[in-house]
Amino acid sequence: MPPGITLQCPSISTHLNMHYTPKIDDYVKWRNIEGWVYYLDEDHLTIEISVKPKVDNLVPMHKKHHCLIVVNNYEYGELVYVNSRRYKNATNLDDMEVFVREF
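RE: above sequence
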C-alpha cells in the first residue's frame, strides 16, 4: 500500500461500537460469509473462505487452492471483525493462536 494511505471502514465491528480498520489475517463476517482477510489494498480486499491442497505441481510455489471473495472498499462498512490470527502458516486451528485486536 502506498505511504500515506489509510484504509478505514465505518463499520460497527463489535458490540463495543469500535471503529474497525481491516488488516490481513483478521477473521471477519460479511453478509452471509465469514473468513480470513487474505489480501488488502486501497480498492478492495479478499476474504478466504476455503482452502484445499493442489493435486498438481504446475506452479510449485503455490501448494493450495484458495477460494476468495472480493469486497470493494465501499462495502467495508458491512464488515464485522471477529478476531485475528498470529500464525498464518499453522497446520491446524489450535496452533493458529487466535486473539482479539485492540482498536
